[in-house]
Inverse folding.
């Protein structure tokens, strides 16, 4: 008697999984297998010469992780990544917030045009942009040309151990403030106009309204943007890779770039261990992000 | 209230100017000759306009081939994401089956996985599939992006179940319902998926850099990076800047026309 129902459920399951097949294959090959393989590799002495015989390598336990902790270069890359997040995230948010606020202050004409211009850096190819940055911050570049016009002798920005980092972070900000702006603009929709008007009638000035009403009501968006940008800056790779290659003297090398370099040297085990440390950070931040998104979706 | 509006516009114009400055600079630089650069490296405007850099780019620097590769990889990626994303997104929103929660968890895991944590094994998988140095190998990891599944799933949730139920009572099979009832209604989600996956493919840099080992399989960003390195010795800035324009222009044009869908994609998902 119960057979037809069981069969229906089964065929239903088969249909559901059939729909998921294309995604499932790509997921299996390029996400699921790599997550496991990466962890396994991080516990072995695998090198590039073992590519075709990945099972012939030796298990070394946590040796790669210990190597990392003792490697000044890795420790430096962790500290650099912290700087990327701690400096890059707030500045990107500030730029995005100010622009969103300005676009939302009652202007009508060209609003979409401005929004589009501010978002354009997000969709622009990073290799192109990094090139521009490199030429602009060259010793004889445009930035120094402008400084010379003002009577200053400009430094070699990207060749200086202390000045390279700010330039690399600036590129990160330029590429991401558009995303922050869009999310803040969406967040403003959730702040009821009536509350702001009521406060205005009660005599609250614009700054007061911003501080006491808009900003507190915007808290969920602010949290979301901060987590989203943190996930981005934690994984920062393109900017230092293209602008400085991590130099000078390792001053701009991020964890992701360190991982890539170790891969390039053929040290797959060490590279995987470093990437797993990064993975843990990213997953924690991302888990927070999905928690924040849930009530909205 | 009224008096502050001009001030706001002034602020916006300044901010927009700073944002757009790099674009203007690269466009102007790409029209300058080599001699022009050598005499005044940091100049803002060309002393004489020339299209030589663009001609050289396609005649001798191999950009024709890079462009073809980029277009082929983008076409594969968009096709894969529209088909794979629509199928999976629809199933996760509208079909009941065992293991559905696990399948959705897989989408979330794929969404949050940092590239640097997976590229070494991804490279090993691609080597063992024999796809190193092929366009398919370049496209493969992005063929069905989790973001595409996510976008379609979110959108499908807004389509009433009654429509699908009605077709089911009429005896239509699940694939038929997907094709004839869901797909015609899914236009906006598929448009967003198309744009987001095109963008991801066109701008992708590290993976193509790893997989495309010979210039015959380079995509535009990889080709541009290689051209920059080669041009460093001869300081052929104009050539490299023209390359930068070729790489970024298509996306900016698409964005200019379809800004709405980009914005929807971000707002709908809260993700990049």
């Amino acid at each position: 008697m119960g057979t037809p129902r069981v069969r229906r459920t089964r065929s239903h399951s088969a249909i559901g999984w059939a729909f998921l097949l294309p995604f499932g294959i790509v997921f299996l090959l390029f996400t699921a297998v790599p997550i496991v393989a990466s962890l396994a590799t991080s516990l072995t002495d695998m090198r590039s010469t073992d590519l075709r015989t990945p099972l012939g390598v030796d298990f070394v336990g946590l040796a790669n992780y210990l190597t990392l902790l003792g490697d000044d270069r890795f420790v430096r890359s962790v500290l650099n990544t912290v700087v990327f997040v701690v400096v890059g995230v707030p500045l990107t948010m500030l730029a995005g917030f100010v622009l969103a606020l300005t676009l939302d202050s009652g202007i009508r004409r060209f609003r979409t045009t401005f929004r589009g211009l501010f978002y354009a850096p997000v969709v622009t190819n990073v290799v192109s942009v990094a090139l521009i940055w490199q030429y602009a911050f060259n010793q004889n570049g445009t930035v120094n040309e402008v400084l010379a016009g003002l009577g200053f002798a400009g430094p070699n920005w990207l060749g200086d151990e202390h000045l390279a980092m700010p330039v690399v972070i600036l590129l990160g900000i330029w590429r991401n403030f558009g995303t922050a702006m869009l999310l803040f603009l969406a967040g403003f929709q959730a702040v009821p106009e009536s509350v702001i008007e009521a406060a205005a009638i009660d005599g609250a000035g614009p700054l007061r309204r911003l501080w006491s009403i808009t900003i507190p009501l915007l808290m969920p968006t602010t949290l979301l943007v901060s987590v989203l940008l943190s996930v981005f800056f934690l994984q920062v790779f393109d900017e230092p890779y293209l602008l400085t290659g991590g130099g000078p003297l390792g001053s701009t090398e991020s964890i992701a770039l360190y991982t890539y370099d170790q891969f390039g040297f053929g040290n797959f085990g060490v590279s995987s261990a470093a990437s797993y440390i990064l993975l843990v950070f990213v997953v924690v931040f991302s888990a927070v992000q999905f928690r924040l998104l849930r009530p909205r979706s | 209230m009224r008096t502050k509006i001009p001030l706001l516009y002034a602020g916006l114009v300044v901010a927009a100017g700073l944002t757009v400055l790099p674009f203007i600079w690269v466009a102007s630089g790409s029209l300058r000759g080599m001699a022009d650069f050598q005499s005044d490296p940091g100049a803002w405007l060309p002393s004489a306009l020339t299209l030589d850099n663009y001609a050289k780019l396609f005649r001798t620097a191999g950009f024709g081939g890079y462009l073809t590769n980029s277009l082929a990889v983008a076409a594969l990626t968009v096709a894969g994401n529209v088909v794979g994303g629509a199928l999976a997104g629809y199933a996760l929103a509208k079909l009941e089956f065992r293991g559905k929660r696990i399948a959705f968890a897989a989408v979330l895991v794929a969404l949050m996985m940092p590239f640097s944590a997976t590229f070494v094994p991804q490279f090993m998988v691609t080597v063992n599939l024999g796809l190193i140095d092929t366009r398919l190998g370049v496209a493969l990891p992005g063929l069905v992006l989790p973001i595409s599944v996510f976008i379609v799933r979110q959108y499908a949730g807004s389509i009433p179940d009654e429509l699908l139920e009605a077709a089911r009572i009429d005896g239509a099979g699940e694939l038929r319902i997907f094709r004839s009832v869901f797909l015609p209604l899914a236009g906006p989600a598929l448009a967003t998926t198309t744009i987001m996956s095109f963008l991801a493919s066109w701008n992708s840099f590290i993976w193509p850099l790893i997989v495309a080992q010979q210039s015959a399989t380079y995509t535009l960003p990889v080709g541009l990076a290689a051209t920059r390195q080669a041009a460093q010795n001869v300081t052929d800035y104009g050539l490299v800047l023209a390359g930068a324009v070729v790489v970024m222009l298509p996306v900016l044009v698409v964005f200019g026309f379809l800004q709405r869908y980009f914005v929807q994609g971000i707002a709908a998902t809260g993700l990049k």
